[in-house]
Write the structure tokens for this entry.
Amino acid sequence: MRTWPALDVSRPSEPDLLTAALVDYGVAAIDETTQADAWRVFFKTDADRDAASRAIGRQFPEVAVCAVDIPDEDWVTKSQEALRAVRIGNTIVAPPWDVPHTGRLEPVLPAEAGAAGLRRPLVIVIRPSTGFGTGHHATTRMCLLALQQIDLSGRSAVDVGTGSGLLAIAASRLGASRVLAMDDDSSAFHAAQDNLTLNRAADVSLRLVDIRSVTLEPFDVVMANLTAPLIREAASRLADLTAPGGHLILSGFMTTEEADVLGAFGGFTPKARTEEEEWVCVTLQRP
């Protein structure tokens, strides 16, 4: 039987900081419920697990870490089946088994219609996977809320590091005329492909590519829900990708990293900021 490399990690005093530290190490899932006093963190490879173990030891010396190999009992599917639809502003993100009947949804009040002027909540179907973007993480929620505050009608949008494809699908459904989703991770690429088949009303082009190695025409709206190091490294590319007068939505970083991230976009004007669970999302505008 196949086994999954995992770490049992004693429950941290600052869970958001530990989650942020694990982002770069091929995490497949984090089980916070099976053990009362510990997390079980699953990884894609043994090498990812070993590297993460060393990093936790350096950055969180008070946290106990134990490497384990877990038999494959389809734990990913079992944990994902507990997910239910979540409403974020006027958008409902639902797994295929919990899609609400649109005819039964309450109309959106005019004062709450947002930039898209929606009459009823928008429903987007996302199949949970190891990629980001089910709407249950703070950064995804904040990006989706930020997107709803921008008039996308007839505009172009690009989602850099698309993961599940949620933000790109939302941009298309909210009125963008041209949408590109891009990711350099093949697993995320295939997850996004799958989700596009579940949302046929969305018109999104999908590319398996790294923003740091491709040249594209500017877009009116650029979304980048990444990590602080990746945003800083790709800052010049993200800036060039944003059309004059266009908006750049950034998230995936924490309050302690905010100053460094914003410092990489000196010519941009801050237009909006939200914070949730120490995670930050900012909307910047290019002159």
Summary: The first helix runs from residue 15 to 22. The chain has nine helices and 14 strands. The mean pLDDT is 87. Residues 3-75 form a domain with the Alpha-Beta Plaits fold (CATH 3.30.70.260).
